[in-house]
Amino acid sequence: MxxxxxxxxxxxxxxxxxxxxxxxxxxGAKAIAYFPVYAPVELIHAAGMLPVGLSGAGDRLDxxxxxxxxxxxxxxIVKTTLEMGLTGHLEPFDGFLFSTICDxxxxxxxxxxxxxxxxxxxxxxxxxxxxxxxxxxxLAEEYRRILTELERLxxxxxxxxxxxxxxxxxxxxxxxxxxxxxxxxxxPEQVPTSxxxxxxxxxxxxxxxxxxxxxxxxxxQFRARSTKQRDSIRIVVEGSFCEQPPLTLIRLIEDxxxxxxxxxxTIGQNWFESDVPTQGDPLLALATSYLDRSxxxxxxxxxxxxxxxxxxxxxxxxxADAVLFLIAKFCEPAYFDYVPYKQELERAGIPHLQLExxxxxxTFDRLRTEIETFVESLVFD
Amino acid sequence: MTDKxxxxxxxxxxxxxxxxxxxxxxxxxxxxxxxxxxxxxxxGNCVELLEGFGAVPLYPEVNAxxxxxxxxxxxxxxxxxxxxYAADNCAYVKADIGCILKGITPTGGKLPTPTLILCNxxxxxxxxxxxxxxxxxxxxxxxxxxxxxxxADEPSRSDLDYVVKQLQExxxxxxxxxxxxxxxxxxRQAVECSSRSEELWSQIKHLxxxxxxPFDAYFxxxxxxxxxxxYRAKPEGVEFFEAALAELQAKVDAGQGxxxxxxxxxxxxxxxxxxxxxxxxxxxxKWQACAVAxxxxxxxxxxxxxxxxxxxxxxxxxxxxxxxxxxxxxxxxQRYEQIxxxxxxxxxxxxxxxxxxxxxxxxxxxxDMRDYFTKKLGIPTLYIESDLExxxxxxxxxxxxxxxxxxxxxxxxxxxxxxxxxx
Amino acid sequence: MRIAAGVDVGSTQTKAVxxxxxxxxxxxxxxxxxxxxNVQRAAERAFDSGCQQAGLHASDIGFVVGTGYGRYKIAFGxxxxxxxxxxxxxxxxxxxxxxxxxxxxxxxxxxxxxGPSGEVLDFVxxxxxxxxxxxxxxxxxxxxxxxxxxxxxxxLKAKHPVKIAxxxxxxxxxxxxxYLAQGKTAEDILGGVHVAxxxxxLSLARRLNIEPEITMTGGVARNVGMVRALEEVxxxxxxxxxxxxxxxxxxxxxxxxxxxxxxxxSGVWRGDHAISGGH
Lengths: 381, 423, 279
Known about the structure:
A: four-stranded parallel beta sheet; four-stranded parallel beta sheet; 49% helix; B: 16 helices; disordered N terminus
């Protein structure tokens, strides 16, 4: 697929070529990087800025400075993000946005604040008690606070109309992602995850308008395929992904005999179960969507409905045979949630395998063996 | 001769008695269902609210640390790992959950299933998952008080309102669960007691500014912390801290320090290695090094810089305490500032950063902290690593080696400074 | 004339150095033995060997300072100092412009910021695992069936050093085997191993202010490939004394001599037999 030709470079080049291109084409405009998983990108877009989702430096950057600041037992993405900063790779960005995903990431926000004193570095407190009626107003006000900072940075106010327009654009983008995921669940032979993954993830670097056009084209192309179905097992990949798996690993999983029929690799880009309302106060709309219409995730807490029920539902909905937990080394949220996830899967009689990965791996012999063994155990059951 | 004395006045025994009384109440609650109990996190805890119901706090963290101090933490940790928890998960959580799985408790008495599992989320994301897992395991109701993180210099109006509303929702929830109305007056009185306990505790912390300090503001402060979290809002707590202050003041008046001669004054950052509490302490005692301030002793509340609960604004001041006045909900740079203040105002010779594997809130980024204190402020800093709960992660020889090397260097620089001074 | 000794009991080797101060500091003897299982015996053997070399009796030695991990087991020692303090002192004596020490030993590695008189200003250690230590090199050599003495010179001949992903001493073995299976040359593999260790070590050292001159100490300093790899990664030439292995013992001996020098403030000495008082 021609669309894929550039996606790898755009996603992986440490010099952020697409961001530089965009800034070149929009002199004076700002680019705001956000740390995973979810960010209210509509706010950034409405302020005339380019939102860019950071996801570490994979295996492309040797950690030479950042591990002096973050010791052992910390996930790679935290360190490679700081390393990128300390080696000048984050130069195209005018600001960084972090949020309440985990303790390591939160501390990273403030370490970056100290080390890049001229930058706009902010921390978004996403609510962990959506059951409280007060959470809506709090989050709307928190979004207002961020927006005010962006207005200050950009030098101009953001009208509600602009916000509604941005929401509409991103709604459309998310709807396309949902459609692609649906297509893949129904016809995984037509939509290899190694391709879909790149096509979605590149949206973290491109202007939403451009990405939407690409997704529309991709949808047409995927639908037009008439690939033969393989005798693969259908799996859900669950991993609370901030740190991203190497593309080789995704290919390996498919080559080992799996159709990935659902995953949470790029869950931040498809965070809502349905469109964000475009009527009424846009910040309120974004807030209520976050609180009441977000997909389940290990970085979000809503005790009205346990995440583990969400996983079982996902498996059933996508008619998957098994779950593959792919957990980034030292990822505390994922490792914690693994326990109740596992318990519920066992109760529901759903087979599962847990594997650990690192973004910077480039040899995969052990992982390959484990996955192949797992597939064999399911096929020859 | 190195004096390994530590603070062991009568208040130490009184502290033990108070904690045992608390465990007895929990045992009673387990047997009879009364008094109602509420699980909470130590950090930024709102124990005052419980007083409005005559409810007793249950602190899973205290259970975990009690187990570790008594060298009983490994078995429950292993039980939790059998269930699927990872080597890299916080060992406090594993020990606590392991205890429930194995039906053991630190004192041998029973621990109740709480009336409400109240997760006061003040910065530590692990707390959220811990309490969710407890709710699933113990089949008890869960409520999360989402406390906005200190991402600006001050809490905003929006932050305060959000927390106050959640506190009020907590009250409603507890009324439903316990079947009795919230006693607002008792709550106010509790807030008043807290403000008095805090004033006394703050004065105690400030006594450590004297030379010599009458107590170790890390090891002894940790021992004195129990009543601060369980009894702060009760008259027994106030009495305890009055007695503690009097005893320590008397030591100050008599010029008595922790050691025969106080050779080094330190600020300690990070939790202690509870399974090796005594051993760790001895490594500093050998050098007659006394902690004059510590960040860990402010997890439950930061009172030495003037904050007090306000009985005239009980809900809002409880909210403010939870948002702003405890070390865990304060951002990393605010912790640097807190430490810097300690080094300056408490006149410390150096900083010890204790990285603990389990706790990313404390430990992630401590290398940057080290960088700031050594390179920007020129403060002698030692970085050591172990774990707060898991006995498998303590390398005694290596830790001792680093500590010895640090003090050899510090001693040398003190000696040369005094030579220059006397020349 | 004052004569004193320093004994450095390391994880793999024990070193003893005898020094005199007769209007000038002089090294009289250097002894090296394998530590083995019995630390106490190793210390005694090294010390005896040192005395013998110097043509002296144990009773001629006025003061003994023990250092290294086994320092508390040196029953005949007068006091102990950490090897961090002793390395700084020894490096400063042998290479007087030393301001940073990088020590790579058998099982740990460290970097030390050193003041003008050899005093320790700051230090960082990797003592948790064997990454970046002599053990990493030894394991790599063993996997490849090459003598430890040869790995350094071979690594210098690398044309295209391979990329080593892991610094885990255990896991690097499978990486090496994988590269051998791919037909990579021993030189290229060793080149990669040395670069990986050098980067890891520099990463550790960066926690300090790395000031010139940088002196490399410890057993691994005898590995020419390691010295070169470190120099390339740091971007500066380093000082390496021919006595690199003995630097800890030299530092200990220097402290022992200072103890004999009555004019020195006795309050500096610490250890389990602390001789305090003084200031």
